[in-house]
Amino acid sequence: MLQPLYLAAEMSIKQLSTSVIVIGAGPAGAGASFFLSKYEIPHIVLEKESFPRDKVCGDACSGKTALVINRANPEWLTEILDDSKTFMPSWGIKFVAPNGKALDIPFSPKRTKETKAPGFTVSRLVLDNFLFGKMASPYCTIYQHAKVGTITSADGQVKVNMTHEGTEYEITAPVIIGADGDKSIVRKKYLSENTSPKTYAVGLRGYYEGVTGMHDENFIELHFLPEMLPGYLWVFPLPNGVANVGVGILSETIREKKINLREQMLYAIKNNPQIAPRFANATLTDKIQGWGLPLAMERQPLSGDNFMLVGDAGALIDPFSGEGIGNALYSGMLAAAGIKEAREQNNYSAAFLKTAYDDVLYKRLGDEMKISATLQRLCKYPWLFNFVVNKAYKSKSLRDTISCMFTDMDLREQLSKPSFYLKILFNK
Ligand SMILES: Cc1cc2nc3c(=O)[nH]c(=O)nc-3n(C[C@H](O)[C@H](O)[C@H](O)COP(=O)(O)OP(=O)(O)OC[C@H]3O[C@@H](n4cnc5c(N)ncnc54)[C@H](O)[C@@H]3O)c2cc1C
Fold this sequence. Notes:
Blueprint: H1 5-11, E1 14-17, E2 20-23, H2 27-38, E3 43-46, E4 60-61, H3 63-72, H4 74-82, E5 88-90, E6 92-96, E7 102-106, E8 119-121, H5 124-134, E9 140-143, E10 147-154, E11 157-164, E12 167-173, E13 176-178, H6 185-190, E14 199-209, E15 220-223, E16 232-238, E17 242-250, H7 251-257, H8 261-271, E18 283-284, E19 289-295, E20 303-304, E21 307-309, H9 325-345, H10 350-378, H11 382-394, H12 396-404, H13 409-414, H14 418-425
Parallel strand pairs: 1-12, 2-3, 2-13, 3-9, 6-15, 13-21
Antiparallel strand pairs: 4-8, 5-8, 6-7, 10-11, 11-12, 14-17, 14-18, 14-19, 15-16, 16-17, 20-21
Helix pairs in contact: 2-5, 2-9, 3-4, 3-9, 9-10, 11-12
Residues 23-29, 46-49, 55-60, 146, 148, 179-182, 185, 203, 205, 246, 248, 291, 293, 311-313, 317, 322-326, 328 line the site of flavin-adenine dinucleotide (FAD).
C-alpha cells in the first residue's frame, strides 16, 4: 500500500538524541565543547560554516584566552607558546591619547626570564581552526555546513530541526547552548530583544602589509582619536609583517554624529600625523570588513528553561577593550560546568541554570565588566584621557600602576573612582 505523502516525509527525518546541543563552533562553542568532553557529556555541535573560516576581529588574544586553553589541556597552550611564528607573543600595549601622546605599558611589569608573554596575536582564520581541531572527542559530534531550522521547547526537551548534506534531522536534548555569535538565533528564540536589548559597537578590520614603526615586542596599539571617542583605532601586529588595522566605535555615536566609519578609518590612515607616515608604503591586502560587537555594559540574563547563551550570543564583549575571544571561551567553560551540575540534579530549569551559570559567571567577571563599562563612559572625555596619559608619561610609578591593572582587578577598579584622578593630580 502507498504511504500518504506526509508520512513518507516524516519518516525521512533522522531522529537524534543527545545530552547537549551546541549551536556555533567559534571560541564560545569550542570552549563549551572542550569542557563538556572533559566531563564526558555527549553533545552535538551544529555549525553553519565549514572550517577554516574567517571572523572579522582584531585578532588579539589576552591572558584569559590562554587561561581557558590551559585549563582545557595544558599541552594545547604549550603548542601555542612553542609556535611563536603563528601565535605571535605580545608583551604590552601602547595607548595613544587624543592629544597624540603615546604611552607604552607592558603587560608584565615584573617579568623574569621564565615569564611567558601574557597575550598573543593570530588571525582568526588560524586560531578558530586550531580550536576547532581540538574539539575532536568521542563525546562530540560536529555537523559543519549545518542549516539550523526551527528550535522548539516542550516538556523539558529542546528540539532542533537541521538539514545537513540533503538529510533532515530532528535533534532532541534537555539543553541547548547558543554559541552562535552576534546574530544568535538561539538568543532571538529565547530572549525578547525588547526586554534584553544589546549595547552595540561596530568594528571595521583591514589587513595591511608594510606598516612601519611597530614595537619590537609586538605591543598592540590603541589610538584614541578625538573624532572616535569613546571608540579607537587599533594597529595590531601579526606574523609575517602583516598588521590588523581597524576601528571600533559605539553604534549610538555613529548615529548621533552621522559617522562614515570606513571613510574615517581611511582618513586617519592617510592624514593623522602619528599614523599616516607609518602607512606611507603600506598596502591593504584584503577588503575592509565590518561586524557588530555586542558589549557587556550591564548584567543580562544568560540562561532560562533549557537554554544557555555564551560568548557574543550572550553579549559578553568587554566594553572598554572590545575583547571577546577570552570571554567567549571562558563563558563556554562555565556553561559546561553548569550543565554538569544540571545533569547531576536532572534539573534544567531557569532557576537552576541561573544559579549554576549566570551567577557564577557574573561573580567571576561581573566586577571586571562593570569597571570596563565605567572606563568606556569616561573615555568620552578627551581631557581626562590626556590628563592621565600626560601624568603617566612623566611618572614611572603611575605607569607601573597602570601596568599592574591588567592583572589586578582591585587596582583597575581605582580607575573608575574620582579619588584616583585626584591622587594623580596632586602627584600622590
Ligand atoms: C571588528 C572587531 C574586532 C574585534 N577584535 C577583537 C580582538 O582583538 N580581541 C578579542 O578578544 N575580541 C575581539 N572582537 C570580539 C570577538 O571577535 C568576538 O567576541 C568573538 O568572536 C566571540 O566568539 P563567539 O564564539 O561568541 O562568536 P563567533 O566567533 O562569531 O562564532 C560564532 C559561530 O557560530 C556560527 N553560527 C552563527 N550562526 C549560526 C547558525 N544559525 N547556525 C549554526 N552556526 C552558526 C558562526 O559561523 C561562527 O562559527 C572583535 C570583534 C569585532 C567585530
